[in-house]
Design goal:
The protein is mainly alpha-helical. It has 5 helices and no strands. About 10% of the residues are buried.
Length: about 110
């Protein structure tokens, strides 16, 4: 991320926090006041983003993944009215792997 891009991000956050509509001119004004130089296209790109997306929504959903959907859940078996709770899946027992120490292998750090 370039310094100009980061500065535009901060400018958008400042404008949003103050409740000021985000425009390319206002972003450029904030960058000039902060004595930050950036490529001329960044303020316009960020202003277009702010037109299409609500910055507060982006902030609130920063940790929400947009990836794969929810896993499929098997339908309950037929018969019973469907009100019975499903049995929890059986827990898998994991075997503990014990690492052998150097002493057990017959050599150590100070062996000659």
């Amino acid at each position: 991320m370039s310094i100009g891009e980061l500065a535009c991000t901060y400018a958008c956050l400042i404008l949003t926090d103050e409740g000021i509509p985000i425009t390319a001119e206002k972003i450029a004004t904030l960058l000039k006041a902060a004595n930050v130089e950036c490529e001329s296209y960044w303020p316009g790109l960020f202003a277009k983003l702010a037109e299409k997306k609500n910055i507060n929504d982006l902030i609130m959903n920063v940790g929400a993944g947009g990836g794969g959907g929810a896993p499929a859940v098997a339908a309950p078996g037929g018969g019973g009215g469907g009100s019975a709770a499903a049995a929890p899946p059986p827990e898998e027992k994991k075997e503990e792997i014990q690492e052998e120490s150097d002493e057990e292998l017959g050599f150590g750090l100070f062996d000659e």
